[in-house]
Sequence to fold (108 residues):
Amino acid sequence: MHACVCVFQVTAADCSEIVSACAQSAVMLAVCHVLRYDPAVRKIKELIGCGAIGDVVHIQHLEPVGFYHFAHSFVRGNWRNEEESSFSLLAKSCHDLDLIHHWAGGRR
Fold:
């Protein structure tokens, strides 16, 4: 079994290329947002879903990216250039964005 963690593509063409490569190589491709299965996350989803905390109209979430990590990875590191990688919010916080979407139930 082969695993590749956080190979995130931004364009539809790049995603299609990954799908094709996996299909040609008979490799399973999966998107895994594992935080959805954390007991605390599941409890929050349950409380929102049953209306125990009222109607959610706003979710405020903090992803504390330390200055040293940001400077190392997003200023001088692998994610320094959007032409070569994704922007920092997507690269660092894709799981956080998934949680917010999960909790909100896809509402817009």
Observations:
- The chain is about 45% helix and 0% strand.
